[in-house]
Structures are given as structure tokens and as C-alpha cells.
Amino acid sequence: MKGRPAAAIEVRGLRKQFGRQGVVAIEDASLSIAPGEFVSVLGPSGCGKSTLLRCIAGIETPSSGTVSVGGIPVSEPPEGLGMVFQRDALLDWRTVADNLMLPIDFRRGDRAAARERAAALLALTGLQGFEKAYPSQLSGGMRQRVAICRALVDDPVLLLMDEPFGALDALTRDQMNIELQRMWRAEHKTVLFVTHSITEAIFLSDRVVVFTPRPGRIADVIQVELPRPRRLALRTSERFNGYASHIRTLFEGMGLLKEEA
Amino acid sequence: MRGNVIALAVLVGVFLLWEAAVRALQVKPIILPPPSAVFAELLNAPAWYLGHAWYTLLVTLAGFALAVLVGVLLAVLIVESRLLEKSIYALIVALNSVPKVAVAPLFVIWLGTDAAPKVAIGFLIAVFAIVIDAVLGLKSVPPDILDLARSLRGGRLATLWRIRFPCALPSLFAGMKVAIGLALVGAIVGEFVSSQRGLGYVILSAQGMFDTARVFAAILVLAAMGVALFWLIAWLERLAIPWHASQKEQLSTH
């Protein structure tokens, strides 16, 4: 399954304002992500972290600053982009197998050539046997697995995930974290993962980028040096909690977490 | 299946009640003939009724097909262009409340007394339902899916064909179910206004001779045709969108 080399991301002085007098979603964000790195963007709701992701995806145009993927400035969605959304964005009218073929269809690629990889990805997520099922017949967790397989099927150089597990229950979410880690270790794509869960961000990432609330600025970047593969039990370890309490202190400093005196 | 049996039983019950009521109350056949007389009239000249029904059916299908073709095309233009949405769409929604039947005589002046004016009236009455539901459907794509299409570098045409159009199908079929009935209304109105053929003509000429049984016979054939056309669309819908929630029963039973 060795595919295209992963791409690096460069964000320089990014600012995004919606409308002339509108909300400033991001202010002066700069960030370098190495090829194959797993980086989480963590912050409260509405802090512009999704906007950052959408600017990198070329879906949103920055008000100022630059974004490049694989050394190429982004002015439209870059080639080899895999995206996963909070709501799985599966096409109801396509079976699981055909949903996986959407990226191939859009670039008028050869479906037959992609079938093998699609089957391998479905097997990796325990979805073999569901190829002919429609999304409406699947559970939330299974649907999101299909969405991740679809993002990976065309061998992307970059995977952008916008709160992909935000709509799932806690147990399924833990399971998805383990599976995502396994897939990332097998594929080593560059991943930018937007979340508002501190635990999820630390568990999955090489680095966690913490955002301030409106306008979103980068408050801190935390290098997570925990050995992989990481197990769920790691989340109660001292080192893990050290990272978590550091991030919590940051949020408290922003006035986001207040305790009774 | 069970629903169909019950519906059929209710229908037979209504006919029996009608028959009994007409006999018991001794209603004049010119006011309300018993169903037995209506069926007798039908069976007396089945080929004649079938011939007229065939003509009405063809006119209806032609008007309907034209409405779907033009309606979907208009809807695509409206959804793809801001300007057209603001101009044409507002106009179409406003025009929908105009009684289209009133313009039927105009079509006879413009298009003569052949099938063309009937098809045109059927088209005119049916097309609004198609446009409005198709626009609704084409716009019902969740924003995430549109973002997904963009992230896959999908152009307008590819997004229209692979995303918007399939997404619009459930809504379009809902519109088609309404439109097929409206096309039939249009065909009959056209035949009322000027015709020597079709079930509308049968009804109008029988009315002139106070042949109430014949009027009822034609109405019966029309009703059967309307139901059959509706079923035809529902059957096509099942074939086209087996994935949709409205078809879920079929999905889970196999």
C-alpha cells in the first residue's frame, strides 16, 4: 500500500475575515507541518480552527497571508486531498463500495484499478461484507469509517479531518481513535485533525496546536512525545495528564474554564 | 400488498353501496345510474372506450414528458445562476397561482384542434410542479457534500451530474407524482375545449345527449388511468431510488 509521498503544509501570516466588516475568524496564524506528521488543531467552538482547515483545503480564500501544500501555493483545492467532515458526507444514493469510488469518478480515473485498495481499506476498518449496503443501513461509527476510507482511497498526499468524531458517542469515539491511529501508522499521510477534545488531540497527535477563541490565534504548539502505538490506558498516565493539564491551564488563561472560587 | 387488498375491498364496497342506494331510493338513471348500468355501458363498446382512452393517454404522456424535460432544464438553470433564480424563479412561482385552465382556448387558436394544444395545456399545468420540486431537490444537497465535491476538484458539471442530480431525485419523483395527474387534467381540459377524440370528448358529447351512464363510464376509465399512471411513477421511483428513506421498507425486507 505504499503510495504517493505525503505533503508538507506551510501557513504564513494567515488572516481570514468574513465580509468587509465581518467576523475575523483567524488572525496571524503561522504553522509548518512536516510530511507524514499528525497535527491536531484544538480550540473552543467557533475559534476559527475549521476555517484554517478550509483555507488549507482551498475551499476558503484567505484575506491575507499564504498557504501552500507540497510547496505549491493554494488557490484552489490541491491535488491529492482527502477530507473527512463531522457529518460523514456520504452520498445516500451510493452503496459503500460506490461511495469509495467518488474521488476516482471525479477525476475520471479507472475504477477497476482502485477496487483492490478500496477492499483493503474496508477490511482494515472491519467493513468487509458491507460493500453493497447503503449508508442509511449503517450506524454512525460505520458511516464515519466509510468516510475515512473514502478520503484515503485515492492515495491522498494530505488528509484534512474536521471534527470527524464529534457526532459519535464516547465509546465509538475511543474505538475510532484507535482505528485512526492504526490507519495513520500504516499509511503515514500528513494529517491535520480539528477537534475540541483535549484527550483526543493528545492521544492522536505528534503536535497539538492550541487556538484562542475569536479571533483564532495560535496560543501554543505542544510536542507530544508519547511512544506509539498508543493504548487507551495511556490516557490515565502521568505524562499524558501532564500534557492535558498544560492545555487546560492555557484554556483557563483564556477565561474558557472557570471553577468556583 | 395487504394495503392493496383492503383498498380493493373498500372500492367494491362503495360500488355495492352505490348500487343498493340507487335501487332503494329509485334514483333516475339520468341523475345517477347504478354501477351495473355503467359497467354494462363500458362492456357494450370496450374497443370504442379503449380507443378514446388511448388518445387521452398519449396526449397526457406527451404533456408530462415535455413538462419533465423542460421543468428539469429550467430548474438546473435556476439553481446554477443567481440571476435566473432571482428573475425566472420568482416569476414561475407567481405564475403558478394563475388558473392555467383559463388559457386553454388560446392554445386552440394558436395550435389548432389536433393533439398539439392538448399536449401544450397538459405541459403548462404540469410543468410548475416539476420546476418547483426539482429546484427544491437540486438545492437540498448538504453543504458538507458540496465542500467534499470542491475538495475533489469537481467542476460545476461534474457536481451537477454526480451530486446535485441524484440528490434531487426523491424530490423530483414527488413532483412527478403530482405532475402526472395534472398532465391528465390538462389533456381532458384540452379535449373539452375542442376535440373529436379522447375521453374528454366522450364526456362532453355524452353530456350533450344526457347519457349519464356514458359520462360515468368515461370517468371510470379516467380514474383507472390516473391511478395506473401514478403507480407507474411510483414503480419507476422504486427502481431509481432504492436507497431513499421513502423506499426503506423494500430495502429491509430483502
Short summary of the structure?
The complex is a heterodimer of chains A (261) and B (254). Chain A is an alpha/beta fold. Chain A contains eight helices and ten strands.
CATH topology of the largest domain in chain A: Rossmann fold
- The average pLDDT value of chain A, as a whole number, equals 91
What overall form of chain A do the CA principal axes indicate? globular
CATH superfamily of the largest domain in chain A: P-loop containing nucleotide triphosphate hydrolases
Describe the structure.
The complex is a heterodimer of chains A (261) and B (254). Chain A is 33% helix and 22% strand. Chain A contains 8 helices and 10 strands. In chain A, the strands form 2 sheets. Chain A has a 6-stranded mixed sheet with strand order 6-7-8-3-9-10, with helices on both faces. In chain A, strands 2-1-4-5 form a 4-stranded antiparallel sheet, covered by helices on one side. The radius of gyration of chain A is 18 Å and the shape is globular. Chain B has 254 residues and is mostly helical. Helix content of chain B is 81%, strand content 0%. Chain B contains 11 helices and no strands. Classes of the chains: A alpha/beta (261), B mainly alpha (254). Chains A and B meet through helix 3 of A and helix 7, helix 8 and helix 11 of B.
List the helices and strands and how they pair.
The complex is a heterodimer of chains A (261) and B (254).
Chain A: E1 9-17, E2 24-33, E3 38-42, H1 49-56, E4 64-69, E5 72-73, E6 81-84, H2 96-100, H3 102-106, H4 111-124, H5 140-153, E7 158-162, H6 170-187, E8 190-195, H7 198-204, E9 207-211, E10 218-223, H8 238-253
Parallel strand pairs in A: 3-8, 3-9, 6-7, 7-8
Antiparallel strand pairs in A: 1-2, 1-4, 4-5, 9-10
Helix pairs in contact in A: 4-5, 7-8
Chain B: H1 2-25, H2 35-44, H3 46-80, H4 82-95, H5 104-111, H6 115-138, H7 143-151, H8 156-193, H9 199-208, H10 212-240, H11 248-253
